[in-house]
Specification:
By secondary structure, the chain is α/β, with parallel strands linked by helices. The protein is built from 7 helices and 5 strands; from the N terminus they run βαβαβαβααβαα. Helix content is 35%, strand content 11%. A 5-stranded parallel β-sheet has the order 3-2-1-4-5, sandwiched between helices. Helix 6 crosses helix 7.
Length: 235
């Protein structure tokens, strides 16, 4: 119940433990939702982000957190789930080998199922279409298309009460997202972005995800409290 005695609406958030999903979770909280978070343990080599998801849940007071095992290493096909080197030469214009085949398509289907089961009509996902590494499943047209698929394929959708997909970071730059951490009083170190952590547990600073994150915080003039490996390349 909220302060007015009304039932608090539930929002289901796809929470990876990364920066974008942390900010997205905080925005859902700010909008007055009771947040239920879904984290997928898909066999990612940067499993450190699962620890971050738990930290974010604790720090933000998330009402319910489900960690769902779904080992995509059985499929392979990505540097995040297979024995393929994570590229560290800089962010390119092509879809990189860190793309996990149909990941957000699969994850959104699972998050939609979680939302419908939880009685939630609101799903939040932290996709970002501007400063991203070329992933097709972060694009606005994909999110819009999936929303229509969910309307057609769920009980509440065909009964006229479809789940709304919120993507509040979709048109933000990484610098704007970094600024949101300051506005929302979030510690960036609660989140994890690195695809290839060092044996000591430090962010490499050189993979696409690290480069985009570091560049965003630098442009925003916001301190990134993440511990990076010594000798990380200049951004």
């Amino acid at each position: 119940m909220n302060a007015n005695g009304n039932a608090t609406k539930i929002a289901v958030v796809l929470l990876s433990g990364g920066l974008d999903s942390m900010v997205c979770t905080a925005i859902a909280k700010e909008r007055g939702y009771s947040v239920h978070a879904l984290t997928i343990d898909y066999g990612q080599r940067h499993a450190r982000e699962l620890q971050s998801a738990r930290r974010i849940v604790a720090e933000l007071g998330v009402a319910r957190h489900v960690e769902l095992p779904l080992d995509l290493r059985a499929f392979g096909g990505s540097a995040l789930t297979d024995d393929i080197d994570v590229p560290k030469s800089g962010v390119g214009s092509d879809i990189p080998v860190t793309y996990v085949p149909a990941r957000n398509l699969v994850f959104l289907a699972l998050t939609t199922a979680f939302a419908e089961a939880a009685g939630s009509g609101d799903l939040f996902i932290g996709v970002n279409a501007l400063d991203y590494s070329g992933y097709p499943d972060c694009r606005p047209e994909f999110i819009a298309s999936f929303a229509e698929t969910a309307r057609l394929g769920t009980k509440r959708g065909v009964e006229g009460d479809p789940i709304t997909i919120h993507a509040p970071l979709q048109h933000m730059t990484k610098a704007e997202i970094a600024t949101e951490t300051a506005r929302l009083d979030l510690d960036p170190a609660w989140s994890w972005s690195c695809y290839d952590p060092t044996p000591e547990g430090l962010a490499c600073g050189a993979c696409d995800s690290c480069r985009l994150r570091r560049k965003g915080f630098a442009e925003a003039g916001v301190c990134d409290t993440t511990a990076y490996a010594p000798g990380a390349p200049a951004i």
